[in-house]
Amino acid sequence: MNENNKKIFPMKIVAITVILTIALMVTGLYLAGFHLPHRSVMPQGEVLLDEPEEQLWTCGMHPWIITKEPGLCPICNMDLVIKADAGAGDEKNNKERKIAYWRAPMDPMEIYGAPGKSKMGMDLTPVYEDELIGGVAVKVDPVTRQNMGIRTEMAEKGILKHTIRTYGHITYDETRTAQISPKVDGWIEELHVNFTGEAVKKGQPLLEIYSPQLLSAQEEYLSVYRSLKGGRQTQAGSFLESSRRRLSYFDVAEAEIQAMEASGQVNKTVRIRSPFSGVVTHNRAVQGGYVKAGTPLYTISDLSRVWVEAHIYEYELARVRVGQDAQMSLPYLPGKIYQGKITFIYPYLQEKTRDVVIRLEFENPLMELKPQMYGDVSIKTGGTETGIMIPSESVIRSGERNLVFVARGEGKFTPREVSLGASLDHGKVQVITGLGPGESVVTSGQFLLDSESKLQEAVKKMMDVAKESSTPALDDADDFFEDMK
């Protein structure tokens, strides 16, 4: 071995030793799961932060698209935005819970926008936003928001005005309807009203009937009257009063009795008169016909006031009461509104239609409202009842739950599940729980936000599953060796 070889040999040994040492160190780091950069904790609890991470870019509508350089989203071709630090935001949200609204501890439907006392004098309890979230929040930049056509409207507290719109049919006022029938057997000698639909006045003669029984009663009265007038009977006064009462029971008018006293002769026939003004709705009287006592000959109805029977559903029954105002319009008189009131609510449901009939009363001085007509009826309900209301179009109804998107500022929209009450006028709907007064809800573009929220929720679940099934230590070591190459 020459001198050169002697000098090179120790250097080879040193080099091999260094290489083996490095290999052992790398192997140890690999097995220990060492990765760079990392965070280390000091004994006193102080944290040494990593080196600043490089800036990442993402899409506002597709957050799983993440790149190291700015550019366009490969899906929607929108400009990428700087990816925010989600961890810091979560820590801040955990420290500061935002109150959505305040409610009474004994009545969850009693909602207020500020702390205070309930109607029962109890302290209001706060309801936090994180308790009402119905999905993953969505953040949209101003440009995207404008392209999506997102509009919002504020939830307000006020009087719950609801108008029931239904149909009704006009019928006779049963309290102003009479049936005319003779109280004795006899023959119809003359008809003064002989067709259905004829208008009659109170006291107007309807027919003249000949009856032996009536004739006998007239002769008896006239005989007693003559005796009393001649002074031949001392007890004639009581008999006269009894005979006069008997004629009145047979519906003989007072004017006819006086005419009989003046003439001194009985009338062959007796006139039957109308008890009030109205219209003949049924007529069974025939000239010369024989009728028995109690046979209905006429039905007369006073149409100066009519009934309207309107039909409402079961769930609307709690909103109507006797005395409420109602309006009605008719197809043959467009533009004219008739004012009426609810006078009776039937205590049972219709067997076939399964609805409830309510009775309305309308004045009819011009006889424009005719029985059996149909009209459009509207009943304003609500009164002094107050509550939270929002536009009905802002609610996403899936059948299982009702969802709205609440605008939280800075382009953030949070889905929230709400409980709804009755539909209100002007396209509003009552909110029982889930929203407070003054909160802004999305009225246009909420379906796009819902789709994005569901998509982000699905991606988040996939990422959580991937994190649980992966081995971060080995993955980081692989990255380390790739950097070493």
UniProtKB/TrEMBL annotation:
Q: Name one GO cellular component term.
A: outer membrane-bounded periplasmic space
* BP terms from Gene Ontology: copper ion export; plasma membrane copper ion transport
Q: Name one Pfam family in it.
A: CzcB_C
Please report the stretch or stretches of sequence annotated as the CzcB-like C-terminal circularly permuted SH3-like domain: 388-449
**Domain Heavy metal binding spans what residues?**
57-83
**Would the keyword Transmembrane helix turn up in this protein's UniProt record?**
yes
User: Domain CusB-like barrel-sandwich hybrid spans what residues?
Assistant: 178-300
Positions of the CusB-like beta-barrel domain: 305-381
Transmembrane parts of this sequence = 12-33
MF terms from GO for this chain are: transition metal ion binding; transmembrane transporter activity
Keyword tags: Membrane, Transmembrane, Transmembrane helix, Transport
Family membership: Belongs to the membrane fusion protein (MFP) (TC 8.A.1) family.
**Protein name per its UniProtKB record:** Membrane fusion protein, Cu(I)/Ag(I) efflux system/membrane fusion protein, cobalt-zinc-cadmium efflux system
